[in-house]
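Retro notes - structure team

What went well: the batch runner handled both jobs without manual restarts.
What didn't: labels got mixed up in the shared folder, which is why I'm recording both outputs here explicitly, each with its sequence directly above its tokens.

Job 1
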Amino acid sequence: MTARLCIPLCLLATIFLAACDWMPGKPTKQEETVVPADVHQFNTLYRDSCSGCHGANGQFGGSRPLNDPLYLSLASDEYMLGVMTDGVPHTLMPPFAISQGGALTNTQLRDILSGIRRAWGPMPDSPGVSPPSLHASTKGHVGRGRTLFASHCAACHGDDGRGGKVAGNVVDPSYLALVSDQSLRSNIICGRLDLGMPSWNGTITGVVSEHRKGLSPLNDKDVSDLVAFLASHRVEFPGATFPSLENPRDTD
């Protein structure tokens, strides 16, 4: 190869390599949302950093709804700030603090938390009503969790957890690979107001769910057992399997 030909080829390779950081549909650096450090309005901070996963109004997102007074009454400021600061490993929740590679200052994180509490919670105390702790204090038992699932959850999620007429698959390995045990626990305790899932005591906005009538409320250990049962369906390599190399598809 001549030197005259080598130089253009090297330049072309450099251009291609530089372009690999951008793919069709991916925002360019100029298009990416950047929240300046002097922005403190809750609506702006929430819209740019949280709404994509938690929903525009704190609900109907892929992640836990924040427009939930019960959840906000159980989640401490320390816990919420910890999640926003450090993210949640092995899930889609990233760290947002600048110190952890995010784009928000500690003050902005507190602005978001204050705005969430002002807008959506917490639930007022009800005499004699004591929800399970948001954080597990005991290790769950898979067998007991399976029994509880059959009595408290199967009516909606199906006998095997793979989905019923009312609710979807909660034992899908791909789903379980994206959520933490804490997320499962939060959903079991608080339910999903936006999706019609009852809370720990079988109620939705104070009304007992048709599918939970006559069943006892879940206690702290019950929740841990249910989480253990669901988590037992995780696999090492979730997702679709690769075609077998031993039986290649016939291309004739």
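Job 2
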Amino acid sequence: MYTVTSKDGTKIAYDKVGQGPSLILVAGAFSYRKFPGQVQLANRLSAQYTVYNYDRRGRGDSGDASSYDIAREIEDLEAMIEEAGGSAYVWGLSSGAVLALQAAASGAKITKLALHEPPFVVDAAGHKPPSDFVRHVTELIAANRRADAIKYFMTQGMGAPSFVALIMRLMPGVWSNLMAVAHTLPYDAALLKGYMDGRPLPTDLWTTATMPTIILEGTESPVQLRHGAKALAGVLPNVQLRSKKGLGHTKKLNTEIIAAELTAFF
């Protein structure tokens, strides 16, 4: 394990494997650097890249601050990029893709950007989180109701059937990992605020993200994720959309297929 210090003094933990151009992995909700899918993907990519797999703040071995601000998470990623040599390829998954996109638009030195199923909801008829989603997730965590927060985030935020959370609760290893990072769910909710309301994406918000970009989406994924991916492809200035079976992320990551697509792009 290595650490880098972010701009606000927070220690960010990461693992580094492989040789070659620098590639940083940005995890989504419920994930961290030791999540099996993250580790497998890093190892698959390590044959051609120096892969930096880090814990977003508040997760795993990384530190945290007393309050959350999206700008601090962007600074964390910028610190990782500086640690990786001053510029890097970046892959972001789900809410991690939103974070990576925000960082790219703010001027982070990302040479190529891979956005893997950012959970934008652009259809009025699709599932949308409640209007008080961020507030309620935050209140559940403040009350130390982590299990309730996990269920609420999955069902009301992600639109998963209620039995999914129940099944996961019956899997001790999986459930303990979810509980360990549950307190960061308000961070992911904050990142997604305004982008899951069933409205068209803004056309001018990310125009400064001019680096070559690929959006990955699985043909087996929920339709709202697929529509969100296509909508994002319509507003970014230098983008390609890759749709393929096996690129979905709502179940187990198919790291072989993902690694192949990333290698072809980078």
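One thing worth noting from job 2: Residues 69 and 187 are 8 Å apart (CA to CA).
We'll revisit the folder naming next retro.
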